[in-house]
Design goal:
By secondary structure, this protein is an alpha+beta fold. It contains 3 helices and 6 strands, in the order ααββαββββ. 28% of the residues lie in helices and 54% in strands. It is globular. The model has no long low-confidence stretch (mean pLDDT 97).
């Protein structure tokens, strides 16, 4: 698998793991220091995000991929922008479908890529 394929696969694995509440998979593919910047600007640490998925504060019902673009790979760092239609209920909100854009950064260590940081917005 090429680096580009591995990065795209990580993006897809994360989206599926969010819907499946697959905490083990999320913990595996997210780097320990990963942070997710929400549309509100809130910088959420990895373990807090995983905990909120597990306890239902963040409920993801579906994620339909629409576009992956701007893939950049430079040595052991990479980034991409992914766009998905995500049906979710976040922090007690009503269920809604969001045109969610994720700018993702990846890091490669010991031959393995992980998701290092994420910035959420809409498109």
């Amino acid at each position: 698998m090429t680096d580009k394929e591995a990065i795209i696969e990580l993006y897809r694995q994360e989206n599926q793991a969010m819907v499946d509440k697959d905490i083990v998979k999320l913990n595996e593919i997210l780097s320990p220091s990963m942070q997710l910047q929400h549309m509100t600007g809130y910088m959420q640490p990895k373990l807090e995000w995983i905990d909120q998925i597990q306890n239902g504060e963040m409920k993801y019902f579906s994620s339909i991929e629409e576009n992956i673009k701007e893939i950049v790979i430079e040595g052991n760092s990479a980034s991409l922008i992914g766009q998905n239609k995500v049906m979710a209920s976040v922090w007690g909100s009503q269920v809604a479908t969001w045109p969610l854009q994720m700018k993702m950064e990846f890091a490669k260590s010991n031959g393995k890529w992980t998701i290092a940081n994420q910035i959420a917005s809409t498109y």
